[in-house]
Amino acid sequence: MSFDSIYSYKRFGSSKEIDGVRSGFQRDYDRLIFSSAFRRLQNKTQVFPLPGTAFVHNRLTHSLEVASVGRSLGKMVGERISSQYKSGNESAFEFYKYELANVIAAACLAHDIGNPAFGHSGEKAISAYFIEKAGEKIDGSDLRSFYNDQEWADISEFEGNANAIRVLTHSFKGRFNGGFGLTYTTIASILKYPCESIAVNKQFRHRKKYGFFQSEKETIMNLFSEMKMPVESGYPLIAKRHPFVYLVEAADDICYNIIDMEDAQRLHILSKKEVEECFMGLMKSINRQGEDLDRLWKNYQAVSDTNEAIAFLRARVINVLISEATEVFWEFRNEILKGEFNDTLLDNINQRTKALNEVKEISIHKIYGHDVVVQIEIAGFNVMSELLDLFIPALLTQKPSQKQLKILDLLPYQFTEYRDTDNKYQRTLNALDLISGMTDEYATDLYRKLKGIVIPGLK
Question: Where are the domains of the chain?
Fold first, then answer.
């Protein structure tokens, strides 16, 4: 791969050339912002539930902040790359000077759009359902027997990243061809794991998880070709990561590592002293840019409001990490272009400086293991499992019962492709399309109604 051949203005589902004031990449950003799938992120758990009046992050605010960090990373890296094309490739110069920041910002907005309700526990609940029900009989056959190995790997290890690709590119019934109609460049930038589910191998960063379902395999093959992404293997399908992925991934890593700490302080899970020591220690261990930390500390101490003081430090830490991630990307740009950089930008920083060790240690033991977080994970397992147990048998059986027919009536029109096929995998995906798109609140409400805990219309 080379910088002058890894971007494209082509859009999914359209051959029309974009003209007008807004570029295709700015339109990607706008289409995402105004989409219902993006709006639903406001009621999807990031790490914490929303306790009372405490303002903490959900997946929507997280995605907006990741987009902000991503835009900065794209701008800083784009400036460096564009400097190589000041005399020569005018198209490449224009793209990297003015558009890379828009690409990374749009991709950051979309990176969590396929995640189900209840955070990562929602993904685990979907996977667990199929594993636990594998031997259950439907029309006299085991559930597992309805799927080939590749299809089973998709649903028994459900992956929000792969679901994002489906949400963004699949032509759902009654909707536009090409899904959101985003550019190939933006989609390539969120494909963290350019391999199918049977190719997962945690020794390789780009195969730690999988990035697309079997239903989108042909779409992804076209993406690999258009974006000049080298294919390592045709079966199982594996390609090298697109270089822009590293910037989107770094923006996400920076935000969830740092902002979860800020939220924990707001919720009194962590003290002000714990967070300030962690943030200051992180900046001291990196500080490649030679920031005056003594002056920064004085400015911090001048802020008497605890939340605002921590927010001040958070902003400075993010700035330091953005600058350092830019340096790492540029230092390893040749390995990244060759697909030989088996690392992330943040992990590379941490291996050299140990800057994030304390953040991760505190997050694991004091934040992610907190009682409220564990409670919502358990609740998520129960809700998602029960909803799947209503929809999956109804979609797979040849002769649905009266109750199951009523359940199928609940599927919105765009998720009724099952009516046109006997393929059990495609039918299963329609259930996952519905359930994975639900917000925490809607999934819980529907669960209570369908289980008879609450009767609609009755007080």
Answer: 371-450
